[in-house]
Fold each of these.
Amino acid sequence: MNAYCQQGTGGNALWNWFSNDGGQTWSGPGTVLSPPAGVLIKGISSAGNADVFFQYDVSGGDNIGCSFWNGTSWSALQAWTLSPASSAQGLAVYWTGSLYYVVYSDGYALHLVTTNSNGTSWTALQDIAPATSTAIGRISPRIAAFDGIFNLTCIEADSGFLTGSVYSYPRVRQSRDLVHWSGGYILHDLPCTFGAAILKCTPPNTSRARYVVACMPTIRLGTDFQTSDSTQYIDLSARVLEYMRTDEVGKPSVVTVVLDQRWL
């Protein structure tokens, strides 16, 4: 396990702490590298492949840099080969075994780039979420993979200019190939301003998986669908709290069902 931050006083080095026992004890801080004097690091992420990626100030905007652990030391700063971004508001990295996929935010758009195993060759792909002027903000992307799906979270905020509603919620987008992403859905129960992370885990003493979304003010826990037979269905009749059917001439029927919210 690794944790990273930028040195707060006495320098601006990128620091690393690590744990070899699942987080029970930690060693550090150790210096990964020292960026140019006075440079501010804006976002840090790791794919867990003995790597660290980060955004940092340069003339004209912000770059993405990376460093790699060879078993004894960290490599020197490897800067991307693309033009500086207009701003930096977080990034997320996923390693496929041959390429790093890097999602980064400039505050309003979610951009996607790839790089090779040592960060020497970079390719810009189609934006995941292009900017809509400054109406919708999108910051702090995070990537998690489970159930054969890549899940990308970011904090999406509207000042009210576009929709008339002021909000700041996590949005979750999904992809099968890290290139084509859904429009996603907003988690309205988790209003937050900073980052949100989604993950899947199996708690002790149970074989049922749980899905967790965590942000600074709130942590939400949900369950996966439980199957009762080989046809992948479960009878929820006993858990129905309310049922309403609405019919209109020339339109499909609408059925609204409220289920017991306790864990199935």
Note: The chain has a mean pLDDT of 90.
Amino acid sequence: MSRIVEETTDEEFDYIIHTGDITNTYKTDFQTGVEQLKSVEPYFETLSQRGELVYIYGNRDSERVPGGNRRHVTEEYELTPGHRLRREETIEVTGQRFTSNPKSAEQGDILLTHGIVPQQFYRPEAKAYFCGDTHRAVQQDHALNTGYLYNDKGYFGAYFIAELDESGITTQVLGLDERWKPVVCPDHEWYGRQFHPEKFGCRICKFGPQQQFAPMVHFAFNAATDGVGNGKTAKLEEIITSARGLFVDTEEYAQQIRQYLLVLAENDTPGPFDPLVPTDGDEKRLQSP
């Protein structure tokens, strides 16, 4: 945060948005997380003087307690600068509505969540959608995943300056310790504009399609069968049609998600994160595990 404050000296913004994981309580411990939150407050105070500060908390702002009740850092300490947007809440800041509830987002709203909601990211109801959590900085017209400021591997990330108009979000990405750039992969144009340091390439080319396609397939199956479970199944083409209607309606996208589904349908032992499994019949159908 100190780098953000330093690099935006003398800047003024309409809004400054933080998309969550303000602390690293989940990876450290509760008291360390509280101290991290207290250390952030002076920077939030300075930023709030440069624009209306709106923020949400993320999953890392709660402690990790397997099988127990997880404490959130705000149970001991609350930030005072800016405007906190709570889960499923809608607030108004200087005439602009912000909501964290994807189901209630309206055309004039700014949707803010920690974690991508795929339907809203590719077909947003709101005029703008900002989200965090995945640390994969990518943009689709009116939607922007903001990546990270600092990660567990010890790398500084980037922040964005965004301008919003009717055609979408115009973004400038600013790396904190190295130059970042926007990239549109010619093999995965449907994925949108990716942002990362110059030494990195397309994430799908490098890591494979599962991170992107697994949640899409889950939602597409749910829509195609009108609900997950109860022994429901769907043909591959039904899931593909559903995915095109929900997310990206291009032949490139359809072919790539078809290949992903074919792998699932032919895999006798599904992986732990596979959203669907093959049925016992000869026809290529899939069902929720």
Note: The radius of gyration is 20 Å.
Amino acid sequence: MHPYQQLPPRAFWRASVAEPSIEAIGDVWQPKFTIDQDAPLITAGSCFAARIGRALLDHGMNWYDAELPPPGLSDQQRRARHYREFSFRTGNIYTASALKQWIFWSFARSEVLRPVSARGRTGWIRLN
């Protein structure tokens, strides 16, 4: 006897996702809550998250973009400047700690520090 013996077939990848046809896949995941179409959603993260905002818009969701591109930029210029990738133009954020730091900075809940180097030594200065 092992702990997985009593689990239903939906708990296993092969039985719930790999073997059934795409139309038959269901009951694999049960959301704990729903997101209304008008609920504001933000995205931050890596290259995967950079595409989520566009997908949310394409599906009629309320993706929040805090940094709209200035008028007059071409699509190529907007892409080159990374507008419309994340909800705010921080670039890639790979950890929850980094996201938390950006959020704290945005609400002035922590000091913004900048690394500086002089004479082979590195330190930090306050920006605010």
Note: Helices lie at 13-18, 47-58, 75-80, 96-106.
Amino acid sequence: MNCLQLITLMAILTGCIILAGCTGQSPQSPVQTPALTPVPPTFTPVQTSVLTPEPTKLPTLFDQPVTEPPAEIFVSVSVQKDPVYSTITATFDGGKGQDLVQSIQVRTTLSTGNVTEEILGKKKGDEITIPGTKGVDRIQVAVMFMNGQSYLITDTVLGQSRAGALTSMPTQKSAVSTSEEGLYSGPVTTPPNSLSVSVDVKKDPIYRVITGTFRGGHGQSLLSRIDMHAALGTGETVTKQIAGNIGAIAEIQGSDSTDRVQVVVYFKNGDSYKILEKTFGPRG
């Protein structure tokens, strides 16, 4: 083989090698998967309403029934209303326990809904004057003693027409019924305005005579009778009738101890109301 043929052969072989390198498949590179960035979940807050409970009103002494202090610490407070100016006067009458009194609190609930509380002096004869209304005003008297005992001694409503008719908070019409003591059970009630009448009851501090005086009222002409009952400290129960004339009186001889008095009125339509209940000490 001559030199020219050798060169030609080498050129052909070189071309074949180059062609094989261009057409051959190279191994595939692995496919890289992009990394996923986690997205934190989102929460939509649910709005909830928090109910704030209303504060519970704790009962006070003025929410309790009238209670008479024991005889050894008995005290009394008189309440009356001026028939012209409607001013209400509360007077401390004293009593066997007057030196043991820590404080006397008077609460007034007017017919307008206004409520006030004032302190009454502890000396016998001390008084306070409170502006009242032409309507029915409620007066409550609570006494606190130095030994820690407390009593609601008066729960009274005073109307427009007359002063001094001591009655409890008005309630619905109810018939009275006799209790074991010979007095009448159930709350004191105020008749409707068309039947309203007033009776004053006092006890003489020297002779111990209990006097009931009829003061009249819108229902005067509709009255059937007025009974004044007294449960005396001697254990005796006495009843006297008061005439239906303005100024008419009835008297019961009280005792040297504590006497409890009630006034019950009866009307021609059959309604009856216990309009007054009051406890008197030895000196009224």
Note: Helices lie at 3-23.
